[in-house]
Amino acid sequence: MPTPNIKLPNMDHYWVPFTANRQFKAMPRLFKAAKGNYFTTMDDRQILDGTAGLWCVPAGHGREEIAAAVGNQLRTLDYAPAFQTSHPLAFEAAERVAQYMPAGLDRIFFTNSGSESVETALKIALAYHRVCGNPLRNKLIGRERGYHGVNFGGIAVGGIAGNRKAFGNALAGVDHIRHPLDIVNNAFTKGVPEDGGIALANEFEQRIMTLHDPATIASLIVEPMQGSAGVIVPPKNYLKRLREICTKHGILLIFDEVITGFGRLGTRFGADYFDVIPDIITCAKGLTNGVVPMGAVAVKREIYDAFMENSAANAIELPHGYTYSAIPIACAAAIATLDIFANEKLEDRGASLSGRLESAAHSLKGLPMVKDIRNIGLVAGIEFEAIAGKPGAMSFATYLKCYEMGVHVRYTGDIIAVSPPLTIEPHEIDRIFSTIADAIKFVVAAGDAGLDHTRYLKNEQDWAMHQSHQAHINHPILEHLE
Ligand SMILES: Cc1ncc(COP(=O)(O)O)c(C=O)c1O
């Protein structure tokens, strides 16, 4: 929503990911700089970052320590082949990540994104059972409304229909357990819901395992807190019970911690928050504070050892890897980020601010259209009543109004998600939620006009651009979740 006379780039060539391109190009929101908890827009407005980028900037923007580490590394060793050679920083980064992981998950495979971490984890699970002599354990179980990135394994175990249906059948041998959101019984719960966890987890054993011989299931993958599908906080004891069931049946439990890792819940990982140790953890995003693409998969030492002990001598134990696995600048960024976490105790900061965020978020209860509010650590989700025939319209309109008022939030389906950097100040938390409240009141008061995104096209130039893209717009509201 730039003001007049801002020179926009030619927008024809860039295919913007997970974005309604025609709509966005008619009404772009472009940042040209970022520092601390704020973005600067093309027209020099400061926008408070209520989402830590895409959940990936826990230490705040523009960290000089990371910039210096990356710059120095780039000038020293820009690249070393990732296969058959390596470089010392890869080993140092792996050691640091291992030390940051829950005890026992100390063998680290590096990737370049959350999606690649998920694919890697699923492949390790399948290959692990093979290398242990159990090739029939080849089914992958995910969860409804799970988001595990965009590659084929991830969309197969993922449970967001909009992300799958355009691509046909992703993988065979996949099934899903139920998601734990129970608005009927748990609406407006502060933090973790008390009841229903054990019964819900038991469904895994009762329902899925009666359909599939448990001895054919390789792994179960879940996000400790489902972020992209709209902040779904699992009930008490649910993850613990899933752990018990997996252990009983020899199924590897994978926690996808791409969002919940690196302090988001006020602990290092969701595993720490819920006191449940999975067999494999996937992470990315906060690992480098979002500045260089990097992901990691941490596996229990026994899993790594099984590959080493059971593979033929001199064989490649895991035929898998990426050209950019552990590239020097990513390792430098990860180490600098872990230093910041250690020096600033960012997880503790997140934990100490979570009460403030909880009160601020739940102060929105009672506003029109607000159907549920959920929170945990430094995350909150505000779910709206769906408007018939207009899925996501309310959240999109609220998001746009917040942006106009200088606060960046996320919308996903009928939900607004808030996940600020762990460096956020208490008064900034208050501002995020008071802005959302004002935006909701504005949108509701304006009725249909409030839901019309074209109201934000401010000048003739924007209108002309809008009209030129308008011809192609057939669904103005994003229906995909990410
Ligand atoms: C739980 C989870 N897994 C995987 C991913 C995919 O990560 P990326 O976008 O880095 O591929 C995400 C992204 O939001 C995520 O939330």
Automatic annotation (TrEMBL):
One GO biological-process annotation of the entry reads: biotin biosynthetic process
Does the keyword Iron belong to this entry? Answer: no
Asked if the record carries the keyword Phosphoprotein, the reply is no
Q: Which Pfam families match?
A: Aminotran_3 (PF00202)
Task: Spell out the molecular function terms from Gene Ontology.
Answer: adenosylmethionine-8-amino-7-oxononanoate transaminase activity; pyridoxal phosphate binding
Query: InterPro entries in the record, alphabetically?
Result: Aminotrans_3, Aminotrans_3_PPA_site, PyrdxlP-dep_Trfase, PyrdxlP-dep_Trfase_major, PyrdxlP-dep_Trfase_small
Tell me which cofactor or cofactors this protein depends on: pyridoxal 5'-phosphate
- Domain of life, source organism: Bacteria
> Which UniProt keywords are listed?
Aminotransferase, Pyridoxal phosphate, Transferase
Family, as annotated: Belongs to the class-III pyridoxal-phosphate-dependent aminotransferase family.
Q: What is this protein called?
A: Aspartate aminotransferase family protein
| Species name | Methyloradius palustris
